[in-house]
């Protein structure tokens, strides 16, 4: 830990930045930071300045001499960086609103990770991450890329497989939440006693759990948490997903614990009904988040606020930034912390292609993530997992090449989208609606517009 | 071809039997038959006699001395059999009507192979096929089992993997139809010139095609058949599936040709709409077939009719029996005919488990099916294929053990069923409605009934 | 079969050419040949003319109007070719003599395919086949490459994987011989009744056999042919391998039939002893072949000889050229003949890498080889097969890059070479001895010479 | 760590027991032992008593109240055991002497793990481990089996796959030695700083190493340790293997570090020469060990000796017992120590069968070993690894069934044995020589004796 670090955060104007600041400050003994650069685009400059000043106040309050730089010049920031974290959102929250509202119109789930919305988020994000990598190849060829831009799994797969940036680690906060919840459920509130093994894809993983006496407690946890007669879940589940219980007998039969996002796949009709109700009320997740963020930025403007405000927890996505800071500290110190990250499969999950990106329990060393072997899944998880990976591959190919055919294929196999002619209408409207952010689909969009496809905001 | 053959047909009272008779007669030079036994259950005795007399007339008209035996005593028939063909339907067409109408009530596709209906058909059929195999082990341990009872893929997998009957071959008529259609589309009407390679699962396979000059014509066929401006499909597609066009750009991008049943997966919303419309009119496929069959049996009663009537073609499933006869003749004569059959994977499709049953182009030899190697699928087909196989495994496990949890898992991952709480209602109602045919689920059904679940015929 | 064919034979001055001529003439009804080009290098010009005139006499005697061109200008010949067959030998038979005599000095098997000699033959040959492919890319981009230059498996793998020439088929005569022998052993002399399935690598494959009644006769064949009390083998085994019996109980236990070359692996000490005895007498296989060839060329000079002389059979390698002609005729006519060829694995043998080249029973269609699926091998064959494939990969990498380290690795893992310090001496002497034919190893050889390594002919 | 432990050591009369005692005592804070049972057979009773008294003195000197029981009644010992460690040697050192001397007579390597000697050690040991497991199923169904009887990999595979005892962990001291050596080579003498990842089979594994700054130092270690100009190896390599340097360029090209035992495979001729020289002098490893052990037992008899004597280090196999104690302590305390153990593959090494036993870096938890994923090997290691695994499978099958054919197959594919007719003589003599310890081969041995095969001690 001799070298002084330069950390760069792309999408630095995000409302999450104060959490990131807090996470870094919390690890000040393990992180000898010289410079922290917050980068954003011109459109985000105002937010960048608000949140950047906030971060400076936090650093100062901690009595640290870290330099906090704010810039819209990415190349300036990237020069000689040691770590690049990414938390940007192409098209900002308005794009997410479209991602969620257009599918609702077609009675389909938008869902910003794996639904139709997630596919479009990937279409907008992947070309940008590849641009960033191109800059990094020139400006900081040895830097680590810590991605927590969603859909984190696909963005990480694009970075590693298409961009060729091996030193990429993708992050998600979901496993942190369930690990805590499980410890609580077993009577270890606030401690990290249980041995967890997670495997799958981002927002599509399962886990098994063992107690310190060697007994597997996976089934016991299912009974404690998902028994329909228990109130446990209501009190402990993550905040940014609608609370729907699972079919208890299904989980008992499956024998491994799904993640919070599996509700979209295991209880899709119920989730769709809830989503459509929110849509009717103008309360899609994106709309709610947009209001929360506006309030957060008002708070951040307060020149006396020098700590992460409690309201940020409502934003959802708690622990995301904390996870990023822990990955950085583990790499710098070869700490060998066990974390759940998106990394190269290399046979960890034998049901998936060798060169895929998977989200798995790993030891974080100075040379990156070393995953625990998982092996294969039972049939009740295996096929859907393989389907999701195939969909991710189609989305990435479509995103990189602007390939309309692959986009249709991705929509067709996505289990949250009903295939058929209405699906084509939805896809086409979403393409036109995202016109400004999808240069790779320029010709297709022009053709669709010529054929009369228009985006009608609802 | 020295030994005189004994062929046994379980479900001999089926309306298909005259086609089977015709197929056997057509191959009289390659099949030296001594006895043909038609077996059915007591409830089907009347049909058995009608259709059995019809078969006798056909044999006689051909000037053959084959003995046609009719019996409801399966063990009598199986003794020393060389070939056992299975075409039975547990619960008869009324069960199929329930398979289709109950899901429709829940806005879900019944579909007698892979939808909710297909799952229940598997639940009813698999225990019976395992019973038959138990008899065969004792009575005709060297016989071939030629299965064309649907869902043919799952029934064949159960026979081989659970029943341990290696000498099982599963059959489907769909590839015969598409092979003919493709030859026609390339200008070889009535000929079999093109080289076809099929791979996948029953009712869920794709194919590639080459012309006699070595050029691959798969894309050309997609253009000829599935171009929305072409009328070709309308004139040539199989009769027992609603005619819905595919998304042309999807097929172009996929680069392999789906089977007729892929409509349920690629155009699921359109297919559902059509199915619900039929449901409203009381014209589900099962109801239509029931009427057609009643008419057929009226015809069969005619003591002067000694050839397959043209009306049978309307029944759907043309070529099924013909395929069975060709398999038998190829085995007997080591003919090495190329056919598409359900057989052990053994690595033929590398995306699927080694010990799975797959439906693939094979050479039929005296020792069984020798499949052409296929390898792996492109992403646009791979994931769904893997999902379907995992669903099949869940269905088989549920069917064999009467495992309610596995049944829920199967329903949950099935892409034609929307998961969630309504799904549970549908599953439960279907279990109760099938009470008479699911002894393995006896306890579950009793519990459901106690909880107030009832079947309300619509 | 409308287009008139242009066939090019690289290494046209080979003593095999009359057999090739005979094979083509035999298939005159299926091959509408316009031009047949025999190509050789300057050093082989005299032989080319002798054998070329011989071929012209054969064609004339058959009453055909095919043009037989002789040239040392490869590019002239390749222009617009339809088929390119390769049977060249870099360094001619003197190189093979070195390949066999140097290892003998180190008490090691030379063996022109998989032993140390075979490795050096690959080192000399692979760069040339890649050169030929480079020419073909420009001059005849749609031509088929039919390779029967040894080591045929590695040369084919280099052509397809390194050269990128997908339309390559590798050939071997060994399966033709064993198929005939097996038919004879089962009482079908001169017929092709049995169903054979071969799989493995060139000169390292096994097969299973079924009779026309469907019974597997693999064990029966082992008993008939390899029972130590039987004389069958002595009378029927291929001529160019020393006759050593197998350990009968091993084959019985293995349950699949090895190829003739497995003697080198299953009976390595005995084979080595015999080889060393030949070496002492100056009768290594290469030396014997050299004398036979000299006699053959004397015969070929006879201006009245217009048919393949019987003495050619003594040369060994019977059926090689015939196999090549059959592959060509099958491609031209989409004949779907079953042959054993080297082609892409694609999962045919699940124990080997997907992109490997394997030698397997295939149907030869107009678009190339369609292998029968094989699956996995029993342990007694699996591990050695996987070892051999890894060795082939190392050899190809060494051959392409001139990589000394990979050459050492290949020698180390080769089961016919004892690893250690003597092995290094042997490798080094062979490198120096092959100086003129290994431009890719130029620097390594220079360094070795500087260190005092010399080739001392024995 | 609430429960008081009962530990049972089968082969308790071994000269290693004092090291085991030392290892347990060293971990007294983590191991709350009530009873330690040392079990041996009648023939080993004298040794058991000597070494048992020694262990009691060690325990007493440490001021512990552990009960040390000595018995020849295995069932008495196993009752309610928590851990069973196995370090027995069927046929004692005289059997090992035969294992090494008979092969030498045939100019072949005996080698007590993977050579002909190792195969026979497996033949003698596997039936006994399966017997022990049968007792455990009844007497201590929840106990862990910690095996360090050689050949440890095959014995562990037999215990898990044939015996069905999932809670088995196999141990080897080799990785402990190389991990220490590598740390020393990088300047971390006495520390454990480097991140090691090992994978392969027992006595046939490789490793990669990373420094705490994240840089891979595998190549640097090869340069430091295996450069022929360096003396490092001479000073640090394990003591029980003859010191022969590797071909440096091979290791550089391979890019991963082999284990000490790879000398037998990479430098087989040199190792054979050394072994034969020892054989001539009556100084095979077994003979040397026998003398060392006799001296050790003289020391152990001293009623004042209550600590492990230094001479034990000369015995070879240092750290073996220590490793066993660390595994036990890690399981009891859920310590999650990183160790290299033999455990189920489950896809950890994708080149090997899923259900194989492999030796890999793992975290030792309360529920057993959780291996780090490895993935696939480069060609220079992959094929030999796969070959060795196939050989292990053949050996286990032969050992369990007494299958002579599988024994021949195992000998044939073993790369340390030259195949052929001499091999058959060697195998047959070894079978006869081991007559007293191979009940499963009783019939084969009787037949061989009838045919005149005799064991002639050399």
From TrEMBL, chains A, B, C, D:
InterPro entries for this protein: GlycHydrolase_4_CS, Glyco_hydro_4, Glyco_hydro_4_C, Lactate_DH/Glyco_Ohase_4_C, NAD(P)-bd_dom_sf
Cofactor binding remark: Binds 1 NAD(+) per subunit.
Name the UniProt record assigns to this protein: 6-phospho-beta-glucosidase
Protein family (similarity comment): Belongs to the glycosyl hydrolase 4 family.
Cofactor field: NAD(+)
Every Glycosyl hydrolase family 4 C-terminal domain range: 198-417
Keywords, ordered alphabetically: Glycosidase, Hydrolase, Manganese, Metal-binding, NAD
Pfam families per UniProt: Glyco_hydro_4, Glyco_hydro_4C
């Amino acid at each position: 830990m001799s070298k002084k670090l330069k950390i760069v955060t792309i999408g630095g104007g995000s409302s999450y930045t104060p959490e990131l600041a807090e996470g870094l400050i919390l690890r000040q003994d393990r992180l000898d930071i010289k410079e922290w650069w917050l980068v954003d685009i011109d459109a985000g400059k105002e937010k960048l300045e608000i949140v950047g000043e906030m971060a400076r106040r936090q650093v100062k309050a901690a009595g640290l001499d870290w330099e906090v730089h704010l810039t819209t010049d990415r190349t300036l920031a990237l020069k000689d960086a040691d770590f690049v974290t990414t938390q940007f959102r192409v098209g900002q929250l308005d794009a997410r609103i479209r991602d969620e509202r257009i599918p609702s119109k077609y009675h389909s789930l938008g869902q910003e990770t794996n639904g139709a919305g997630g596919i479009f988020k990937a279409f907008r994000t992947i070309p940008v991450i590849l641009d960033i990598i191109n800059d990094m190849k020139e400006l900081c060829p040895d830097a680590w890329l810590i991605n927590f831009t969603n859909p984190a799994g696909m963005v990480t797969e694009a970075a590693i497989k298409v961009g060729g940036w091996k030193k990429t680690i993708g992050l998600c906060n979901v496993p942190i939440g369930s690990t805590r919840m499980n410890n609580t459920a077993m009577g270890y509130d606030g401690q990290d006693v249980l041995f967890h093994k997670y495997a799958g894809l981002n927002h599509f993983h399962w886990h098994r759990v063992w107690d310190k006496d060697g007994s597997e407690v996976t089934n016991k946890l299912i009974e404690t948490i998902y028994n329909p007669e228990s109130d446990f879940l209501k009190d402990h589940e993550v905040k940014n997903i609608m609370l729907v219980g699972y079919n208890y007998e299904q989980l008992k039969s499956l024998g491994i614990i799904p993640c919070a996002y599996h509700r979209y796949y295991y209880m899709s009709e119920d989730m769709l009904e809830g989503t459509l109700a929110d849509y009717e009320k103008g309360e899609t997740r994106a709309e709610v988040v947009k209001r929360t963020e506006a309030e957060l930025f008002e708070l951040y403007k307060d020149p006396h606020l020098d700590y992460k405000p409690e309201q940020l927890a409502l934003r959802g996505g708690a622990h995301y930034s904390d996870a990023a800071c822990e990955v950085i500290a583990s790499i710098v110190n070869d700490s060998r912390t066990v974390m759940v990250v998106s990394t190269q499969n290399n046979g960890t999950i034998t049901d998936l292609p060798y060169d895929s990106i998977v989200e798995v329990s790993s030891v974080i060393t100075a040379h990156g993530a070393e995953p625990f072997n998982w092996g294969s899944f039972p049939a009740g998880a295996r096929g859907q997992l393989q389907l999701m990976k195939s969909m991710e591959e189609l989305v990435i190919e479509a995103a990189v090449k602007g390939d309309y055919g692959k986009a249709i294929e991705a929509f067709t196999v996505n289990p949250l989208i009903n295939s058929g002619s209405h699906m084509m209408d939805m896809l086409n409207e979403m393409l036109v609606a995202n016109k400004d952010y999808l240069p790779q689909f320029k010709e297709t969009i022009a053709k669709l517009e010529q054929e009369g496809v228009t985006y009608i905001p609802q």
